[in-house]
């Protein structure tokens, strides 16, 4: 399996909503392609993610009822962190995407992450993007039976704005040599 | 089979016009150009209003084209704010109903047919025949009843015009439709057929016939004439495009330039024309006196600045050419009558207040540094505030220390003034910075040149830059200095001041000093290797375009500010249209048609091979052009080789630019940024980005990111930029990158001289491109 990660949305883009399209019409039917909808944080390690992700993300909180000592590592710093009774930590679920309208794909879960199997030539994922919000997606592609050395399998990714205009795209050439 | 079809089409097209198919004017035969018309607006429309009004009649601004082929490049189209040539977009005849509607339009005062003179080929033969009257040459003694015939034909003698048109009589009509000149003249000719009178129509040509103006001054002229820059000549005037500006104007007496310095050599031969016309004088702001023409200045500094601004044209003998030879020049100095004091804060402030109350559009040039304590002095600052319509051009300052130095105007206490332009200097080129021998195709910020050759101070306060190195200037008592000693930012300020005089001469008193400044800034050429970006910082605090702290808004471009900035739309044949193909069949149409994957096959190639593609100007279908196409088609061309996330070898970004004209492109500048793979790039933020966690900016590589031009319409330019060894891609996902490129040209008005209109690729007229092809 090969993977390819990309960013959809942009911190400079104040618009609301977007649609991510996956076009697999150029690859053989027996080649499986999936789209990871939730960001595991491994791609783009230096990319500062939005503090709060799209609406509908799972959220929660932790309240310490008595004084507690925690061993934590923050970046390059590791040490003991003392938290007083009543300290509250908010869990924002920042890496999770909210509700997604899916066409041409079947969504399943893998652990905590949602993965969409692209079944149609062209699949679309409607996302209620907030202004200046962005999200990391990852494409997974399996080597199809019969793939020849030097053969490339092209999958296109597009992003449409809320009006349906294609504002950008990426062509991904998978090679399994 | 095709011949009858064409004949049928021709007959149908001509039959729709309500105007005579042919006319005679003098010895010329005129044939109707049915797709064209001249309209005269009652009130000056806005640019948008003009285009919209024409579009309502399915017309566009006439560019000399015919709807089937692009117009020839370089045609200067006749146009005033109210007199406009228009044509149908597709070359089909304007229908009778449309002509009738135009004639009934109360926003228009006149509608004139356009004819083609049979004796002049091409667009230059197109003329509007004005309907308001015509001239006739007739010996009335042979027809004493001619007055009655005039009356019968509802024509009246225009006495005033006739007085100055002898032996012709100019006949007017008040009915521009039914009895328009194109109808009345043939009727009159028929009525007087036995006398065979000569009839001459009042015409206005579509093509003005103006072209670059090259004065004959010995230090200006080059062999061959043209844009060539040669040793011991005024390369600076050629570089800023003054020869194109001079086709517009050379300055008028009603606009004044002020030199605030330590006197000028008034009786220099290069000022003889100005002295003879009473357009040059020197005043003492301390005594109110006027200096005699023979009064000697303290040095030749002021004379040199004044010469750049206003030296006469075509003087004969040894002479230079200044920007605004027809403007009035006033030298202001201080002192006690017989001697000239050095410039003090009080003298500068008094001179500014004196110049600011001259009552005419004025420009002052001060050859001291903006950060000089005399200039940031409260009295001078007060004078700048008190005279908002006096445009003041001051030097950014020279530096001779080993490291670059800042202007220090704002930090020294100087305030932002809309009427103040702080001007830096450029030199001819890196190859031969002080001894111009030929056009090196470079145009760089003036850094230290060695041997006492100073650099140009920089900072956020800078406005624009202009040539300030290796100049030929006037000197004292009478003579010229050439080369290495004639350099510095005060000379650059004089260039800007001279150009401002031309702008003020063109635009009139209603166009205030701040407007002149912004026009010059907006039209400056984006030269040199520094990245230009949108900004709201700096003393200007106004976002009017791309900026950097070395070049400001760019090197001034006289041709752009005076000749080619009239229209963003297709009416301006002097403009260029440079773009980067977004897909293989991209012809420059905008917006990009739907269904085009503009992200995968644009004209960008990334390679570790420095010699993969020959760079520089070339032609479509050349070996270099074909090499680019071949490399672009290779799927491996977009890999960023960065093992471990750090590039171990230089990586080159090749960008192919095409100019689709109609004019030649000048000042072409290409930038490129690689970004972590994304689908939602936003302009200009991502394109302007410096290197950070998810961007790596490409840098200049051997100067090919900039080409001074000219690049002819239809020609190709291939630039190469560099991603240096050690560039950090660890923030990217598996080193995959998208490439974001931009091309600007000082003569591509649609992009480089207009405020940005929001994010997204479409409004940017194809000057930005993204290539996002990745190999996994």
Provide structural commentary.
The complex is a heterodimer of chains A (177) and B (776). By secondary structure, chain A is mainly β. Helices cover 0% and strands 49% of the residues of chain A. Chain A contains no helices and 14 strands. Chain A is elongated. The N and C termini of chain A lie close together (12 Å). Mean pLDDT of chain B is 84; it is low at 1-15, 430-441, 537-543, 564-572 and 752-764. Chain B has 776 residues and is an alpha+beta fold. Chain B is built from 18 helices and 35 strands. The interface between A and B is medium-sized, with 36 and 33 residues. Strand 14 of chain A pairs parallel with strand 35 of chain B, so a sheet runs across the interface.
Keywords:
heterodimer; A: 177 residues; mainly beta; five-stranded antiparallel beta sheet; elongated; B: 776 residues; alpha+beta; nine-stranded antiparallel beta sheet; eight-stranded mixed beta sheet; 35 strands; disordered N terminus
Helix share bin of chain B: 10-25%
Q: What's the main sheet of chain B like?
A: 9 strands, antiparallel
* Mean pLDDT metric of chain A: 84
Gyration radius of chain B, to the nearest Å?
29 Å
Number of helices of chain B: 18
Any idea what the shape of chain A is? elongated
Largest sheet of chain A: 5 strands, antiparallel
Strand order of the largest sheet of chain A: 1-12-3-10-9
Would you tell me the structural class of the helices and strands of chain A?
mainly beta
Overall spatial form of chain B = flat
Rounded Rg of chain A: 19 Å
Number of strands of chain B: 35
Beta-strand percentage range of chain A: over 45%
Structural class of chain B: alpha+beta
* Secondary structure tally, helices of chain A: 0
Distance between the termini of chain A: 12 Å
- Give the strand tally of chain A: 14
pLDDT averaged residue by residue of chain B: 84
């Amino acid at each position: 399996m090969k993977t390819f990660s990309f960013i959809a949305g942009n911190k400079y883009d104040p618009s609301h909503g977007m649609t991510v399209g996956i076009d697999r019409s150029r690859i053989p039917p027996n080649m499986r392609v999936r789209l990871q909808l939730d960001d595991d944080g491994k791609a783009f390690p230096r990319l500062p993610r939005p503090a709060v992700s799209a609406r509908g993300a799972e959220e929660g909180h932790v309240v310490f009822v008595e004084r507690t000592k925690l061993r934590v590592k923050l970046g390059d710093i590791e040490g003991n962190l003392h938290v007083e009774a009543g300290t509250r930590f908010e869990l924002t679920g920042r890496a999770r995407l909210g509700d997604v309208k899916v066409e041409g794909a079947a969504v399943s879960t893998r652990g905590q992450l949602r993965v969409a199997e692209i079944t149609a030539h062209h699949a679309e994922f409607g996302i209620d993007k907030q202004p200046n919000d962005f999200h990391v997606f990852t494409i997974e592609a399996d080597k199809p039976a019969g793939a020849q050395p030097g053969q490339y399998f092209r999958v296109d990714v597009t992003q449409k704005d809320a009006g349906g205009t294609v504002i950008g795209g990426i062509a991904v050439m998978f090679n399994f040599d | 089979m095709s011949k009858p079809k064409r004949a049928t089409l021709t007959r149908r097209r001509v039959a729709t016009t309500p105007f005579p198919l042919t006319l005679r004017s003098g010895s010329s035969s005129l044939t109707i150009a049915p797709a064209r018309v001249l309209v005269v607006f009652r009130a000056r429309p806005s640019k948008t209003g003009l285009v919209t009004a024409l579009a309502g009649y399915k017309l566009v601004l006439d560019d000399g084209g015919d709807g089937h082929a692009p117009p020839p490049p370089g045609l200067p189209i006749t146009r005033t704010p109210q007199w406009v040539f228009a044509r149908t977009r597709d070359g089909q005849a304007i229908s009778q109903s449309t002509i009738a509607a135009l004639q009934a339009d109360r926003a228009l005062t006149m509608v004139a047919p356009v004819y083609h003179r049979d004796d002049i080929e091409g667009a230059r033969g197109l003329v509007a025949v004005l309907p308001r009257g015509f001239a006739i040459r007739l010996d009335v003694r042979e027809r004493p009843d001619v007055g009655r015939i005039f009356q019968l034909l509802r024509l009246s003698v225009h006495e005033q015009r006739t007085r100055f048109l002898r032996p012709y009589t100019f006949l007017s009509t008040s009915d521009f439709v039914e009895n328009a000149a194109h109808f009345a003249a043939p009727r009159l000719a028929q009525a007087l057929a036995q006398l065979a009178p000569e009839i001459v129509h009042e015409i206005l040509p579509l093509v003005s016939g103006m072209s670059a103006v090259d004065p004959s001054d010995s230090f200006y002229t080059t062999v061959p004439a043209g844009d060539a820059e040669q040793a011991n000549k005024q390369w600076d005037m050629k570089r800023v495009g003054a020869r194109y500006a001079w086709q517009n104007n050379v300055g008028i007496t009603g606009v004044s330039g002020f030199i605030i310095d330590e006197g000028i050599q008034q009786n220099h031969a290069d000022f003889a024309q100005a002295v003879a016309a009473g357009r040059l004088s020197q005043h003492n702001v301390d005594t109110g006196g006027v200096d005699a023409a023979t009064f000697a200045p303290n040095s030749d500094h002021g004379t040199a600045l004044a010469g750049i601004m206003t030296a006469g044209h075509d003087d004969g003998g040894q002479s230079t050419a200044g920007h605004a030879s027809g403007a009035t020049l006033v030298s202001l100095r201080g002192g006690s009558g017989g001697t000239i004091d050095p410039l003090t804060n009080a003298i500068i402030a008094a001179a500014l207040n004196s110049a600011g109350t001259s009552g005419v559009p004025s420009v002052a040039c001060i050859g001291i540094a903006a950060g000089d304590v005399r200039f940031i002095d409260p009295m001078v600052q007060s004078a700048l505030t008190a005279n908002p319509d006096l445009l003041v051009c001051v030097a950014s300052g020279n530096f001779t220390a080993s490291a670059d130095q800042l202007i220090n105007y704002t930090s020294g206490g100087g305030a932002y003034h809309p009427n103040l332009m702080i001007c830096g200097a450029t030199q001819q080129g890196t190859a031969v910075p002080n001894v111009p021998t030929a056009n090196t195709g470079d145009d760089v910020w003036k850094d230290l040149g060695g041997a006492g050759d100073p650099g140009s101070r920089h900072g956020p306060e800078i406005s624009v830059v202009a040539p300030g190195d290796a100049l030929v200037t006037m000197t004292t008592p009478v003579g010229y200095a050439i080369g290495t000693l004639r350099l510095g930012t005060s000379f650059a300020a004089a260039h800007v001041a001279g150009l401002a005089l031309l702008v003020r001469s063109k635009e009139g008193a209603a166009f205030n000093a701040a407007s002149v400044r912004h026009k010059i800034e907006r039209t400056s050429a984006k030269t040199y290797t520094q990245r230009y970006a949108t900004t709201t910082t700096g003393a200007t605090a106004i976002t009017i375009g791309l900026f950097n702290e070395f070049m400001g808004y760019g090197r001034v471009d006289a041709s752009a500010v005076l000749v080619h900035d009239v229209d963003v739309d297709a009416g301006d044949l002097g403009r260029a249209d440079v773009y980067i193909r977004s897909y293989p069949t991209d012809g420059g149409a905008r917006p990009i048609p739907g269904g085009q994957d503009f992200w995968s096959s644009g004209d960008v190639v990334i390679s570790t091979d420095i010699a993969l593609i020959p760079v520089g100007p070339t032609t479509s279908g050349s070996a270099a052009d074909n090499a680019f196409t071949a490399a672009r088609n290779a799927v491996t061309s977009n890999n960023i080789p960065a093992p471990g996330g750090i590039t171990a070898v230089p990586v080159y970004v090749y960008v192919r630019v095409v100019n689709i004209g109609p004019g030649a492109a000048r000042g072409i500048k290409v930038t490129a940024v690689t970004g972590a793979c994304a689908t939602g790039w936003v302009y200009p933020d991502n394109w302007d980005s410096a290197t950070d966690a998810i961007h790596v900016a490409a840098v200049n590589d051997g100067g090919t990111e900039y080409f001074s031009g000219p690049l002819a319409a239809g020609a190709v330019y291939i630039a190469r930029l560099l991603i240096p060894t050690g560039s950090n891609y660890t923030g990217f996902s598996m080193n995959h990158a998208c490439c974001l490129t931009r091309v600007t040209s000082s003569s591509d008005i649609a992009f480089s001289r207009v405020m940005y209109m929001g994010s997204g690729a479409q409004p940017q007229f194809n000057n930005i491109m993204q290539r996002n092809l990745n190999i996994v």
